[in-house]
């Protein structure tokens, strides 16, 4: 049972109605009737309010993702959590005010000579304050589980002690203490503590079962990953092995393998700023989807995480060029040293050199060579190894990239 | 551990026109597929699907080359590396070539340090696997571009570390770095030889030297994984 976000007081009646399937007005009438008859309704209502979670399917206080926590300004968590249509009474403040009012009135009455049973009122007020404080803490815990630190625990303990003290006082300050009052006092203390602690225990229990469920999910996922790695990945490798690198089947198998790998071993949260190696890898995946080519990518050194826009664009252009004109297996080698970045793209296609390219074709000359020269680096197009295919080498010295790069 | 020098002592197997092979992989579909794709000059003596089976088959058939999957069930959980460690003593003429579907460096280093003569990925074509088997049977090491890239990284070549003497195990010589860079760029041994104006045999010597360093180096990047898996 949960209490809905849209509520009149605590959302208990609506929640109960949804839970039982009865109409809301019927529940409300019953609640009011039982409240009028000795206050049982009040107690029941309060009990449900404290123990049931509020919210829309999930528990209210638990942020759904890390990003949500980050997005939420830490100052006004309550406002952020309330959302539209939620109304909360400042219950604690009202109780506190009432308590002070009662004490004040009692003192005034006593001054005026009226016999006021102070021994009854003070413990009652203390109990009320303790319970109010405890409720507030539990509410806080339920809303934002991540903020429940040791200070919250200390305050809860304080509240519990207060309740116990109040109940004890109630009996000690009574007229003639005897065995029975002591027994009743002890039982009352236990009962009071139980009432205060119960919602907290319920909360703990709920957390525990949720955690257990999450762990079970993780375990299941790991098992699926292991199974897929053993079966599907092997089959995809076999398909690639048995089919020509240029064929559609090999291409599809490769794309599937990459997707599956990303899903199995990739990190769940994708960082917005990729490093150079990831960018080149992504470009390879993209180009492989459009052309019958297979990129064999080798990266050494530490790829930079910023400032590689020009280099990355030239790299992509070189890879695209190789895929378009040669296809087949294309070796891409990226070395990110301390002094320079170097990329080589080797294909086994028909091959070409810059001199053979007609002047009206701007692909290589403009987007690779000229671009790199503007950025302070250089690019070379030559015959591939053994005179077969083409090799494009792109180089960018790092000092130059810092002073003149990024145009 | 198989020393490269042993191969010269066993010229009969290397010179034979047919190379005997055992395929070890826990997926029958992959074994069947690979078997069909291998060159006719390779004779498959047997197949095995787990560590214990592999050790039994390899020791009983004594093949020249074992195509060994890195990830294998059974045994003491050591996978392909365990097969090499336990079977190598019983079959001195056998060489191991690691096959892996994963590119994880520690997996590959594990089998290489156990004594494998090279490593190729499972998506390599039948022709590529056959060529690698030929190369291994002749006593040479097989380096995929990825393994070459990893070696350059692990031995600090990117940062400019270069061995000064030939017997230094923890760094690569300038020539070895050049060869590794070319292999990482997708060059074959022949193409690398032409590029550097040296013979193919010299390239093979360099690659074997690098393999030896990979197996025996105490460089911390390499030993970290080995220690992690209690290989040392």
TrEMBL record, chain A:
A Gene Ontology molecular function term of the record: kinase activity
Gene3D superfamilies: Histidine kinase-like ATPase, C-terminal domain (3.30.565.10)
Statement: the UniProt record of this protein carries the keyword NAD: no
Keywords tagged on the record: Kinase, Membrane, Transferase, Transmembrane, Transmembrane helix, Two-component regulatory system
GO biological process, one term: phosphorelay signal transduction system
Domain Phage shock protein PspC N-terminal span(s) in chain numbering: 3-54
InterPro entries in the cross-refs: HATPase_C_sf, HATPase_dom, Phageshock_PspC_N, Sensor_HK_TwoCompSys
Ranges where the Histidine kinase/HSP90-like ATPase domain occurs: 315-398
Residue spans crossing the bilayer: 30-50, 91-110, 116-135, 156-173, 179-202
A Pfam match: PspC
Source domain of life: Bacteria
Organism field: Klugiella xanthotipulae
Protein name: Phage shock protein C (PspC) family protein
From TrEMBL, chain B:
Record Gene3D superfamilies: 3.40.50.2300
Xref: SMART domains: HTH_LUXR (SM00421), REC (SM00448)
Sequence ranges assigned to domain HTH luxR-type in this UniProt record: 165-230
Domain Response regulatory residues, every copy: 20-137
Pfam families, A to Z: GerE (PF00196), Response_reg (PF00072)
Modified residues (4-aspartylphosphate): 69
GO biological process: phosphorelay signal transduction system; regulation of DNA-templated transcription
Transmembrane segments annotated in the record for this chain: none
A single MF term (Gene Ontology): DNA binding
Family matches, as PANTHER family: TWO-COMPONENT RESPONSE REGULATOR
Protein name, entry field: LuxR family two component transcriptional regulator
Source taxonomy: Bacteria, Bacillati, Actinomycetota, Actinomycetes, Micrococcales
